[in-house]
Amino acid sequence: MTVPLRTIAWGRSGDKGNDANIGLIARRPELLPTLLQQVTAARVTEIFRRWGAGPVLRFALPEMHAINIVLRDVLGGRGGTSSLRYDPQGKTFAAILLDMPVAIDPALLRGTGR
Amino acid sequence: MPDAVRIGCWAGAWGDSTAAARQLVEHGELDYLVADHLAEITMALLARARAKDPDGGYVPDVVSALGPLLGRLHEHGTKVVTNAGGLNPRACADALAQAAADAGVPLSVAYVTGDDVSGLLDELRAQDARDMFTGEPLPSSVMTANAYLGARPIAAALAAGADIVVTGRCADSAVVLGPLMHEFGWRDEDHDLLSAGSLVGHILECGPQGVGGLHSDWESVPGWEDMGYPIASCRADGSAVITKPAGTGGLVTPATVGEQILYEIGDPSAYVLPDVVCDWRDVRLTAAGPDAVTVSGARGHAPTDTYKATVTSADGWRILGTALFAGGDAAGRARRAGEAILDRGERELRAQGFGPLTERSVEVVGAGDLAPPAPPVPVGREAVVKFAARHPERAALGILAREMAPLGLVAQGMTGFTGGRPSPAPVIRLHHLLVEKRRVAPTLHADGRKHPVVTATGRPARSGAPRCRSPHRGRPAAR
């Protein structure tokens, strides 16, 4: 079945210079492999193509069953002070990414309350 | 050594609620009340304040918020650590000392200087120092230049008996790590502990964001109108329990604390701070009761031999306005109006002999510009257009602002300009560079005397080490 990423993960985004980061936490440890498999650098790049995302990098925090996604040079300036954009700090990026459809084995959703 | 040290953080930025300090003082039973007031751009704003008044240049909220609480802080024995000193820690310390005297409360105030590296810039330019991210040379004229100092000067101030410690620019998390170094006797080479204390600082430094603010499951977070501010009960082994005052809004769960750990980080195996290079890959979060989460598992390595410094410079002007539209194809009309305002303004600039706009931006809320939907894009019946532009000269953007109103006679169903005609605002540009620690002299001012602070010298960063790697580095990404 296909569900929004929000069904299997929590997320938060912010800025660091002209980079943005989106942290994702799998709602249960068993969902981390799905996260890694589905939320690829390529798919994230595609979703944020409009903002001219440079390289997208992923890092794992296994004990928190989380990944951190870094989007390089995606904020249209040199930080929140010089960008003309509505969202110069990537504050909305997590909420946007959490809409992404992910394919998942329904058995894995038991216990997430979703 | 105490069993546990309770630290509460009442500000995540300049302009955060002044009621937060009161909430924590009344309900937090704190050993330390700390605050981070300095976003990257804040120093440039403070530079303007200092230009108007030589006794300005610090964040005045700290005096107005803490002034009425000084009696209770003294009664509880709660100490205060804040970076509100900004560009003028001495003036901030004086103002707090005066507030204590006015309240008849005997409190000793110390402050830390040494973060201002503007005096080094000529030397750095001569050595062709460059922006650590963009590789660009430093601007010829700067507003501010400040290194992010570490937590050792704060610990030294507390060891010297200060009740209130005021700093200028320091690592945000240092306002938490400093008290822990002092209380638990953590040494410069206790890298795992310094990383653990910095992690607690990272969780606390954004106020409510660490206890349910910004949470993905927003509907499950109660009490947005009275959000709790975070409290950490810290132990000597580096572990901590994150909580908030009882009866306040917010939610403390592994998910809400975890989200904040991931906020604004890059490579979790190498989060570089002045005191330590943190490795947070194996951090564990465990529910420890209602609204309580235990954090543990941070590791750390020796710090680098450089401080990060942020330089601000003036970079022309910008203007930003919005207008509302409703009815059929609101988004289409909104976009056309936004583009037309900028085109019209730019034509008028040319006519008056000004150069072109440096940059322009039109974004339509309601047309998928901010959150691109899967195609086909829905046709919005409500839309807000934002039009924005940059130009080196303020007067040029003043002309552009005057060319907005005529569009109200052109575009159907436009409600005029939200907030009236916008005014040009200065653009501040940020530059980041590394400054060798040996050139920077953190100094503690306590009891009317100056004390140099000895800090870890650090070791050179591994040359050529990439800032980022794949998630599979060194360990399986999934267990």
Show the helix and strand layout:
The complex is a heterodimer of chains A (114) and B (479).
Chain A: E1 2-4, E2 9-16, E3 19-26, H1 32-38, H2 41-47, E4 56-61, E5 66-71, H3 93-97, E6 101-103
Antiparallel strand pairs in A: 1-6, 2-3, 3-5, 4-5
Chain B: E1 4-9, H1 19-27, E2 32-35, H2 42-52, H3 61-66, H4 70-76, E3 79-82, H5 89-102, E4 109-113, H6 121-126, E5 144-147, H7 152-159, E6 164-166, H8 174-184, H9 191-204, E7 231-235, E8 240-243, H10 254-261, E9 271-272, E10 277-279, E11 284-287, E12 293-296, E13 299-301, E14 306-326, H11 330-351, E15 359-365, E16 382-391, H12 394-402, E17 414-417, E18 425-436, E19 443-446, E20 449-452
Parallel strand pairs in B: 1-2, 2-3, 3-6, 4-6
Antiparallel strand pairs in B: 1-7, 4-19, 5-14, 7-8, 8-12, 9-10, 10-13, 11-12, 14-16, 14-17, 14-18, 15-16, 19-20
Helix pairs in contact in B: 7-8, 8-9, 11-12
How is this structure best described in words?
The complex is a heterodimer of chains A (114) and B (479). Chain A starts with a strand and ends in an 11-residue tail after the last strand. By secondary structure, chain A is α+β, with helices and mostly antiparallel strands. Helices cover 17% and strands 30% of the residues of chain A. In chain A, 52% of the residues are buried. In chain A, a hairpin with a 4-residue loop joins strand 4 (56-61) and strand 5. The mean pLDDT of chain A is 91. Chain A contains three helices and six strands, in the order E-E-E-H-H-E-E-H-E. The radius of gyration of chain A is 14 Å and the shape is elongated. Chain B is an alpha+beta fold. Chain B has helices at residues 19-27, 42-52, 61-66, 70-76, 89-102, 121-126, 152-159, 174-184, 191-204, 254-261, 330-351, 394-402, and strands spanning 4-9, 32-35, 79-82, 109-113, 144-147, 164-166, 231-235, 240-243, 271-272, 277-279, 284-287, 293-296, 299-301, 306-326, 359-365, 382-391, 414-417, 425-436, 443-446, 449-452. In chain B, the strands form three sheets. Chain B has an eleven-stranded mixed sheet, with helices on both faces. In chain B, strands 5, 14, 15, 16, 17 and 18 form a six-stranded antiparallel sheet that branches. A three-stranded antiparallel sheet of chain B has the order 9-10-13, covered by helices on one side. Chain B starts with a strand and ends in a 27-residue tail after the last strand.
